[in-house]
What does this fold into?
Amino acid sequence: MNDENNILTKEFLPNHVAIIMDGNGRWAKKQGLMRVAGHESGTKSVKETVEYAAKWGIKFLTLYAFSTENWKRPKPEVDTLMNLLMNALKKELPTLQKNGIRLNAIGRLSQLPKKAYAQLQEVMTLTKSNSNMILTLALSYGAREELEQAVKNIAIKVKNNIISPDGIDQSTINNHLYTHNLPDVDLMIRTSGELRISNFLLWQAAYAELFFTPVLWPDFRKENLQEALVDYQKRERRFGKTSEQLT
Ligand code: FPP
It folds into this structure.
């Protein structure tokens, strides 16, 4: 499959694509390398994915780069991931600018090392007027933690009479999530053959189409993203309705 045979059409693209980038460690092990080599190689897949998504006009791309649970990994691996993130942000700023991509981040960002946090803030500020695509990095992110925070913040507002319990609806919850400025996920992709959502965007992916591929993240190329997008275009999204109601 390639661009030329025109299988992918511009009309039915997902608005919001979210990716669980998995399999870096297994990829490295298969090559007889250290796990961190898998993460290093995975940054190339990030670049290719971002550029291809932007080229096709995907408006929102969200990447699961570091979960709340990932802090439990050996310190050298955590340090490497943080350094890779900082270097990639520095190096790819021109790519973001050239493609009109705005950088956004979700998660408990205050837990990031100071330098990584500062670099992230800098790139977010420098790209804030870009409007072709919003690239969101989920960093120190966990969906249950996000929901816990949202419930706490809503409870505080109820206590302070800013909102009433009867006034709480789904949009109230949405507005208190890290993703308050993002639409629902249309397509969630997970690499490496694992068939799980792993605490990623649980609320936002309620009606997402799921695409699982055995490809390990460092091997993920634009053809693989294209395959997922083509597959998405064949899905019938009913949102609880019948097929007949949709036509
Ligand atoms: C999962 O593979 C991947 C991660 C925990 C980190 C993803 C990070 C990158 C792709 C690199 C840096 C990111 C950016 C945004 C520049 P794993 O280690 O869980 O693999 P395994 O399941 O095979 O062990």
Remarks:
- Residues 1-6 have pLDDT under 50 and may be disordered.
- The chain has one domain: 10-141+184-235.
- The beta strands are 16-20, 60-67, 101-106, 133-141, 187-190, 209-212.
- The first helix runs from residue 24 to 30.
